[in-house]
Design goal:
The chain is an alpha/beta fold. The chain has twelve helices and 14 strands. Helix 1 crosses helix 11, helix 1 runs parallel beside helix 12 and helix 10 runs antiparallel to helix 11. The structure holds nicotinamide-adenine-dinucleotide, 3-isopropylmalic acid and magnesium ion. This is 3-isopropylmalate dehydrogenase.
Amino acid sequence: MSKNYKIAVLPGDGIGPEVMKEAVRVLDVVSKKFGFDVNAEWANVGGAAYDESGSPLPESTLKLGEASDCILFGSVGGPKWEHLPPNLQPERGALLPLRKHFKLFCNLRPARVYKELAGACPLRADIVGDGFNILTVRELTGDVYFGQPKGREGVPGSKEEIGFDTMKYSRYEVERIARFAFDAAMLRNKKVASIDKANVLTTSVLWREVVNEVIKDYPELTLEHLYVDNAAMQLLKRPREFDVLLCPNLFGDILTDECAMLTGSMGLLPSASIAEGSFGLYEPAGGSAPDIAGKGIANPLAQILSVALMLRYTFKEEEAAKAIEAACEKVIAQGYRTGDIYQEGCTKVGTTGMGDAIIKALA
Ligand SMILES: NC(=O)c1ccc[n+]([C@@H]2O[C@H](COP(=O)([O-])OP(=O)(O)OC[C@H]3O[C@@H](n4cnc5c(N)ncnc54)[C@H](O)[C@@H]3O)[C@@H](O)[C@H]2O)c1
Ligand SMILES: CC(C)[C@H](C(=O)O)[C@@H](O)C(=O)O
Ligand SMILES: [Mg+2]
């Protein structure tokens, strides 16, 4: 019987639809090559959905996600929707509820430097050396993002008015993500850096305590604890020495933007947000990039590499995933560059041109 994969495609806002178009074209080619059928259904999410229906996460979009094997997500948000009440904003009204609804507790963000892109990395050549390969395992459904209570109190506009959020982790949540990171490290270079702020935050003290307990089951691993401020610095100083970064939600958000830029651009970092089982939401780590949206110049690689992660984690199509990753590597080696990673002597292409090159490389 032929394999048929049902995917909810939610392009979102800004550059989302532009890079998604290329990702789905690539998926189409790969599905034919590796013999599986894709039933991709598109729906609005974020600002685009709000404009159309008054909700950033319409019931129909949520239902489509529930009826699918996974979600391929673009990005949401932009200045147009910043003024809305929190529950109607694309980020807080759609992306975060999707992560919570589908219990996507684990966010994987693999960052590596392609040899030919070492020059796009802002670090000195002697620090980049022959490249680095860092997998961030970021907890995604806890922390200050979701901890209650949060809100505003006091007379609006008065000097006494306050805004507050609650940073919170349960032992269970920390243990679950730590095990995931440790299992991942066992298949890699067996080194984990756990990120916290245990010199200040009670949440981090618990985090560190639990990580120290769980590591006892992994005697082959090397574990270091780093305060997040120090980690931000060490990543610039010695990126090659990192293997797996185990992060709480907020610190992982911040450090993965740093990791993305270390690879050369925000447009290069894919991401997999996964639940227990096979369901996942796959999206670039970067956002809707309002500054370049609509110009046809966004780098589609992060979105295309997110398709590779989707094939790997939800569909266990490892060969197809590797083929996409190899095709991306090949076009970079061939010198194709979008503006964000352009260097003299290379061939400058737009979003569609990069998609074309990858499809050609897959042939
Ligand atoms: N997953 C998501 O949906 C997601 C993630 C991050 C930010 N956002 C939202 O996106 C909006 C813009 O946020 P921001 O400006 O802080 O971050 P951003 O990641 O959108 O942009 C930061 C910088 O990176 C560049 N960039 C990002 N992706 C790129 C790509 N594919 N190709 C070339 N350059 C790229 C942008 O042009 C910009 O200069 C906000 O509304 C934010 O909340 C959404
Ligand atoms: C858009 C925002 C809610 C999101 C986050 O903070 O998790 C984004 O920055 C990310 O990195 O996926
Ligand atoms: Mg982020």
